[in-house]
Amino acid sequence: MSGWLLVALCGLTSAYCLLRVRSGPAEQRGAARGEALMGVGMAVMAVPAAVFAPPAWSWAVYAVVFGAAALRALWWARGALLPGRPSGAPAAHAHGTHHLIGSVAMVYMAVAMGPGAGGGHTGHGAAGGLPLLTGALLVYYALYVLRVGARLLPVPAAAAPGGGTLAWGARPELAQACRLSMALGMLTMLLTL
């Protein structure tokens, strides 16, 4: 049941992100596309294996797709990661860094869950302990969930520039809620590795 709930959460979040691509602010459409891709990938990865056992080559496809997404996010986040680069919008660069970490986490999970991985973690961590990369990603996503969740609590309803209400795809509190649910989904998936 928990697998299906994760599929539903990630699928609905991805659908809302696609709505944000169509009706959200132009400067946030790239982030919404990346979040939609992440949501679809997480939903597909979370389908219970008892219902649909993916072919052996599917994990390589995940790794390639999210590897390409990581390269795109690296390009997008270059202002936050490289000293001396033009600053641009710091929030956009920071969110690009988050997309980079998310894409790398998806590649890591695809490789760890692929055939021949020995259940995921042989050789990655201390003897019999939690692999270092899994632990670092768990800490990152736990802190991200707390940060985004804290931002959501006091958010007032947003109004459109003309005094009306914003379209569903342009509401910042819903975008934050989507980021929170995706981070919770990623945290859950990392815990199952």
Question: What would a concise description of this structure say?
Answer:
With 193 residues, this protein is mainly α. It is built from seven helices and no strands. 66% of the residues lie in helices and 0% in strands.
> Cα distance, first to last residue?
18 Å
Count of helical segments?
7
Strand runs, count: 0
Strand content: under 5%
> What letter string, H or E per element, gives the SSE order?
HHHHHHH
Shape: globular
Largest sheet: none
Could you say how many structural domains there are in total?
A: 1
Unreliably modeled segments: 119-127
Helix content: 55-70%
Quaternary assembly = single chain
What is the gyration radius calculated from CA atoms? 17 Å
Q: Helix/strand-derived class?
A: mainly alpha
Question: Would you mind describing this structure in some detail?
Answer:
With 193 residues, the chain is mainly α. It has one domain (2-191). 66% of the residues lie in helices and 0% in strands. It contains 7 helices and no strands. It has helices spanning 2-23, 29-46, 58-76, 78-81, 90-113, 132-152, 172-191. The longest helix is centred in the middle third of the chain and has 24 residues, at 90-113. Residues 119-127 have low confidence and may be disordered.
Topology:
Elements: H1 2-23, H2 29-46, H3 58-76, H4 78-81, H5 90-113, H6 132-152, H7 172-191
